[in-house]
Amino acid sequence: MATTVAWVRQASGLLAGSLLLLILAAAPAIASPDRVYWNDFEPAISAAAETWTWIPFDDAKCGDGSSVGLGVNLSSTSDRVLIYLEGGGACWSALTCYFFQTATNFSGYSADDFAVDATDPTYLAKPGGFFDRAAAANPFKDYSYVYVPYCTGDVHAGDNVVTYGTRAAWHVGFRNMTTFLKRLADTFPQAGRIVLAGSSAGGIGATMNWWQTQQAFPNVRVDMINDSGAVLPEDVMPSPNTEEQQWRTQWNLAATLPPGCNACATSFDVIFAFYANEFPANRGALLSYTQDSVLPLFYGISTSAFTQGLGELEEQQFDPTTTLKYFNETGSGHELWFTPTLTTNNVTVQQFVTQMVTDDLDWASP
After folding, report:
1. Higher-confidence residue: 26 or 255?
2. Does residue 264 contact residue 157 with C-beta atoms inside 8 Å?
3. Are 191 and 216 in contact (CB under 8 A)?
């Protein structure tokens, strides 16, 4: 079962169909729901240490308007926090959201769905992975973990409710993140460091939410890792780029892009240089295959155009900075986060990420 779920997630990337899991894994260590709200006060999350716990949020929504929540795995020793954003598709019309179902979980994500993810040995429970507390080389082994599900079809970046035919579609991934961050800030008031990461749609989401996460934790440095969510320069994108205009309109990206990033209104890729200027003490990273097997289809371009755009992005937005680095895996594939032993120029993904989050002065793009 775990192998099947992993294959579906890997195959979906940014353009897979939304699949319902008909068989759930054996019961995981999921604690009782935590529902304590009054007078708009957001209490700190209370959960058992070092076990995954599902926390429902009545005011966070999936694409169909149903409520969603997040998963936490709290540390008993560290004040550092890893927030991870799930990936899985995108949609922006009745055709993509309902007919082709190109965004996973758009019809809902429940505690049962999280139970599967939390116990999947190729995913959150992967031995030797970035959520494995028993892995000595894991730089996050002592961190608190926060898992943000993806069920809004908008790469965690939307703040809009639209109508497709007769159905309302809640593209509110960014709004959900705002809701989550309010409570997470109360949960980790003395955080020593926040690392915001995500894969595929979640990688784009980590980039889009970097500014509001830093805003939620004003007294602590927030670093960002975008795995397989490269945001490409406009010169390699289709012309006219009608799909990008649909993303901007249907997801209401004008309301969620970083304040002050005026150039983001016409070119998404400049967001990286903007962050480097806004957060000169923070670190940001991009992990990518040079011939990503999913993103060219999402962007409507060829694989060679993707490779060209990735090179331009890194040369123009990353190389001029001292705080943004990238890890490129040569060849075809999608998502590096769950394969930390992948090696480029004798450097593994795990070593690259470890150097980043430990403030190693030798951290560089291999």
Report:
1. 255
2. no
3. no
